[in-house]
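Hi Y.,

Following your request, here is the sequence exactly as I used it, all 248 residues.
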Amino acid sequence: MCLIGFQWRPDGPIPLLVAGNRDEFYDRPTAPLAWWEGGRILAGQDLWSGGTWMGVSRDGRFAAITNFREPQRSRNGAPSRGFIPLRFLEVGGSAADFLCWLRKEASRYAPFNVLVYDGVELLGYESRHDRSLPFAPGIHAISNGDFDEPWPKVETIKSGMAAGPDDDEALLALLGDARRYADDRLPSTGVPIAWERALSSALVRTPTFGTRASTILRLGRDTVSMLEQRFSQEGPEGQSEFQFRWRS
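Below is the corresponding structure, written out as tokens. Let me know if you'd prefer a different format.
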């Protein structure tokens, strides 16, 4: 994913609310949000590599990943980062144990950030800093930098989620914000300024690359709801929605 906003309320009826956008090349084949074979994992699927960018398991576990934008550290032949959230959802165990394992494996991948929830604890991991992060209750966000790094669209989604966390349509509108920000507010990530401008909006649209899906997840004490709005080069393409009761 390229933008994730999340509200963490560990003592509330819905401990975790997530709103995020996946940006990708339009010609990269993708399967929509669905139950995977075996019925244990609900996620979209990158049909090129077989991994996912965001998903939830039948037992109430959650994982999502963003790339860290640093072109000079791209690695040809590295395994897909989409296998990282998939492994967490498949293997089980605590979020802390998973990150202990991941720290030993992280150098195999191009830089990334991952967010994992095991039903009790929510943790983040930034691979280029080799840093695990707990989160204080409240609203947080990440794009292709560090957690809560104040990029314009990160700050916008945080303030928008604070204003309307219970309204899915409002959250979709927030994720669908296509405005670009002034050059003096943009991060410097090593890509040309034209790309920094194009990638500055929550909803990215270029001729070849853009937002492919907006997803809203509400992970409650015993129920899960997940909504995906998909996009093509022409605009909104289709929508899927799932609700289920999770079991430990």
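The mean pLDDT is 94.

Thanks again,
Q.
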